[in-house]
Each structure stands twice: as structure tokens, then as C-alpha cells.
Amino acid sequence: MSGGMLALVSLGPGDPAYIVPAAQQALAAAEVVVGYQGYLEQARPLLRPGQEVRAWPIGSEVKRAEEAVTLAEAGRRVAVVSGGDVGIYGMAAPVFEVLRQRGWDGRCPEVAVYPGVTALQAAAARLGAPLGHDFCAISLSDLLTPWPVIERRLVAAAWADFVIALYNPRSRRRPDHLRRALGIIARYRQPETPVAFARNVARPDESVRLTTLAEADPAWADMLTLVIVGNSESYALAERMVTPRGYTGKPAGAEPSAPPHPGVETVYPVVLTRVAGAPVVVVGGGQVAERKVRGLLAVGARVRVVSPEATEAIRAWAAEGRLVWEPRPYRSGDLLGTRLAFAATNRREVNAQVAREAAELGVLCNVADAPEEGDFHLPAVWRGEGVVVAVSTAGADPARARAVRDRLAVVLSETDAEG
To answer: Quick one: DSSP state of residue 366?
Structure first.
């Protein structure tokens, strides 16, 4: 049967007054209205007698989409409703995924998308002008997106000085995500950066709270809250939040300082105590990279190797699921979201690029062929009962460091045996 129509209708942030006229007309023209039961209640004043309403519980997006497409394929005029804008974290994507699976030809059924006012736009209007410059939206829900990917996006957005809107910031199942997200952003923003918590804007129980990054309390948020974090130029003005259209000064981090050239006199030894589970990127797949990876795996790091080729050991570890190997050349962006980076290729220009981008991102980096370009060196290590001994020449003479370590190991082993 032909002639079916599928309208994807945006309901806006809550108040029916925010539903655009074209969307209202599409809703009125539908024979069948499909949607989440909460959104259908929101649209109830606009529905007409005789329309067939099919309500679904939350979390049934794919089934909703399948039902709507099936009805439209049968020749019905169907409206699928979604809060905010149907194409932004809404029902448009699931519907088009179903259409793709069914080999849709672009004509039958006919599909039209009606845009709407998003929660972000409504919150921004209440706040004044927080989106006056470049901005992005990131969902903190890891139901469909792995948390490490979300972390990489947070790092990239914070480092690039975007105004950041955080959707789905906090729920009972994931109460800690917003705290972790604000912690990542705080590495790149000043404590006085304005932060807004906007809950249920354009609904009877709406609330808007303006604070700073230093004072923001994740407990203020739930799944109905949108959190907006300003950029380096944003400011508060009479309980409003403003982001200028341009930069009045140099944004933080725009010009990373030149790498130091330390000798042993300026080396400051530290011991990393939380490497287990930390994301680490090793660029390179040869013997030098293998030695670094071996040590990282021994302490439980979450290792990602980027290299077109890899040693048999690295390939085996990847096959066992102990690390992720991406068999391709290094490219910009590979360090986003990582804690430590290791430049260990046999190409000087690649190692230099890794070091340069690590400095820009604030990622600590070890550079195998030019230690002075990096932030740290790997010492020669001996582990005994309750003691760890590390010997370093600041990367100048690794063979000497290993020789000293071995001599100390003999002495310490004899001491342990005598004790």
C-alpha cells in the first residue's frame, strides 16, 4: 500500500507555546500519534478527537520507531513525537535506522522532520547569552556510548575552550558521572568559570541555579537537569550568564611553553600510584614500544597501541584482550582522554608530533628518541620485598642506569637474605 506519511514532530522543552506552528499542524494532521507516554501527555492539549494514540514506556525507542514505520508503510498518516528537537538526542535517529534496515527508497513512506526548541536553547534563553560563542553538547549517559569515549570528548571540548552543555548529567545508576566530568573540565578552566544548572525549563517546576566551577555541586543535578559550563571568557552578570562573541584576551593554553631540557640536577623523582586502570597511549609497535607496554601491563594500565605494525608480543597481548592495538599511523586526536603518552616509533617527525600534541593537551609524555622533549623518563627499576628501587640518568645513559640498578639489586638481595 502506498501513500503513507511519517512526521517526526518536535515538542520543544515542555510548554506547548514553544511548539512551532508547522509541528502543531503536522501533529493535527496525523491519524496515529506514537511516542513516549510522558511526551504524549505534554502534547495532549494539541491532539484532536478521533486520533489513535499509542503510548510507550521510556527506553522503548527502537520498538516505537518500528511500530511507526510499519504503520506508515501500511498507508497511515503517523506522527512520532519527541521532546526538544526530534533530531537532537531524539526519535529521528532510531526512525531513520529502522528505515535503513528496511531498505527505504526515500519516497515510501514519505518522511518529514519538524524541528523544535531544545532544552539547551530554552535554558540559554533563561540565562541570557551563555552560547554567544562556539559550544557543544555532550551526553553523560553511558547506556549507548562507552564512558572512555565520553571522557575523550570532555577532554577535547574543555581543551578547545568550548562552552559545554552536559545532558543526562546524573542518575541513580550513575551518580558519579557529573563529578568526574566537572573534574576533567576543571583541568582546563579557572575555578570562577560560570556554571548553570537548569532543570525542567519551560515547565511549571523549572529552576535555574548559577554558580561557579569551584562551587558546583553534582548533587544539584538529576536526569531532568541540563548543566552549562562557560568558556574562558564567560562571565556572570546579575544572575545571568554571558559568553562574548569573541576573545578579549588570550585563551588559556593557547601557546604551550617550550619543552624543558633537564639533566639529573633538575629531575624531580615521583612514583605514580594510580596507574592501574588509567588510559595510556603508546605510539609505536617495535621492540622499544614492547618494553614500555610490558611494564604498563604489569601495573594494570589500560593500554592502547597505535602503530601500523607490532611485535609478536604486542599482537598476542591484543589477541588476549590485554590491550587495544589500532593498526594504523598516528593521527591528531589520538591522545585525547589519555593520562600518559609514549612516543616510541622509529620516525623522528612522528615522535615530535606526539610530544607536541601531548604538551598542548597537558598529557604527560615520554619520548624514546629525544628524552628532552618529554615530561618524564622511565628509570631502571628493581622490585624487592616491600621496596622499589629506581635509577635514572634523565634519559642520558640508560645502560648506566641499568648497571647501577643491577649492582644495587645484588646488595639488597644479599641484605634481605641475611635478614
So the answer is: E
pLDDT at 11 over 90: yes
Beta bridge partners of residue 15, listed in sequence order: none
Distance CA 64, CA 80 (A): 8
Tell me the residue type at 268. Answer: Y
| Distance, CA of 298 to CA of 316 (rounded, Å) | 15
Neighbours of 414 (CB within 10 A): 10
Q: How confident is the model over 350-406, as pLDDT tens digits?
A: 999 999 999 988 899 999 998 889 998 888 888 787 788 888 877 677 788 888 888
At 76 the three-state DSSP class reads coil
Q: Give the chain's end-to-end CA distance (angstroms, integer).
A: 90
Q: Can you tell me which residue has the cell 500500500?
A: 1
Query: All 3 cell numbers of residue 54?
Result: 499509542
CB 192 within 8 A of CB 2: no
Q: What percent of the chain has pLDDT over 70?
A: 94
Given a cut of 70, whether residue 59 has pLDDT beyond it is yes
- Separation between Cα atoms, residue 82 and residue 335, nearest integer Å: 36
Cβ atoms of residues 324 and 304 within 8 Å:
yes
Give a three-class secondary structure readout of 175-218: CCHHHHHHHHHHCCCCCCCEEEEEECCCCCCCEEEEEECCCCCH
Cell numbers 588570550 correspond to 250
**DSSP assignment letter at 18:** G
Cα–Cα distance measured from residue 245 to residue 129, given in angstroms and rounded to the nearest whole number: 10
Q: How far is CA 164 from CA 66, 179, 193, 196, 410, in A?
A: 33, 15, 12, 11, 55
Q: How many CA atoms lie within 13 A of 400 on its CB side?
A: 6
C-alpha cell at 71: 504503520
